[in-house]
Amino acid sequence: MSLAVVTDSAACLPPELARRHGIEVVPLHTVPGADGTPASTSRPSVEELRR
């Protein structure tokens, strides 16, 4: 059985550290919402919840 350690590019892992420990870094792309605002993982504001 093999095991892989994978993270996304949002982890800001230095490339040398990832290489040294055999960690695969995959790109994380965000897509803006329909209204042009950037996608976010933060909690929505009260105004956004009311919509």
UniProtKB/TrEMBL annotation:
InterPro entries: DegV. PROSITE patterns: DEGV. Residues 29-51 are annotated as: Disordered. SUPFAM superfamilies: DAK1/DegV-like. This is DegV family protein. It comes from Actinomyces urogenitalis DSM 15434.
